[in-house]
Amino acid sequence: MSTFIDTSAFLAILGADDLNHEKSKEAWKYLVGRKEALVCSNYVLIETFALVQHRLGIEAVITFQNDVFPILTIEWVDELSHLSGVAAVLATRRKRLSLVDCVSFSVMRKLGINVAFTFDRHFKEQGFRCIP
């Protein structure tokens, strides 16, 4: 079984001041210990790099790149997944539902992943099981 990892989880893991930091550390240890695929898209990576660098600094980006990135399975977003995400954003007309989230939902469905490590309620709204 694979688990999709969202930007919100990465931010919580790396940010000691994040409200979900302790929960995220426990969940991360559990997921890594299961030795199953931890999947994210290149869109999530781009979003994570930008937000971590802006909020936590370059040292946190280096930690992410050296300690987290090597154990991830990266799903490179293809044109169909991108267009599906764009269509979903435009169809929902919701300000708080991002393209990265909609592409994540598309990628998860394409890969048959139904579990996400996230603190973003949109994943649950889309019918995915969320950890923690």
Task: Explain what you see.
Helix 7 links the parallel strand 4 and strand 5. The chain has helices at 7-14, 21-33, 42-56, 58-68, 79-92, 99-111, 121-125; strands spanning 3-5, 38-41, 73-75, 115-117, 129-131. It has 132 residues and is of the alpha/beta class. The two termini are 16 Å apart. It has 7 helices and 5 strands. A 5-stranded parallel sheet has the order 3-2-1-4-5, with helices on both faces. It is globular, with a radius of gyration of 14 Å. The protein is 60% helix and 12% strand. The protein has one domain (3-131): Rossmann fold (3-Layer(aba) Sandwich), CATH 3.40.50. The model has no long low-confidence stretch (mean pLDDT 96).
Strands across the major sheet, in which order?
3-2-1-4-5
Gross geometry:
globular
Helix fraction, binned, reads 55-70%
**Count of extended strands:** 5
The number of distinct helices, counting runs of at least 4 residues, comes to: 7
**CATH fold-level name:** Rossmann fold
The CATH architecture designation is 3-Layer(aba) Sandwich
Largest sheet: 5 strands, parallel
Number of domains: 1
Unreliable sequence segments: none
Q: Could you give the distance between the termini?
A: 16 Å
> How much is the average pLDDT?
96
Q: How big a fraction of the residues is strand? A: 5-15%
CATH C-level class:
Alpha Beta
| Rg over alpha carbons | 14 Å
Order of helices and strands: EHHEHHEHHEHE
CATH H-level homologous superfamily name: 5'-nuclease
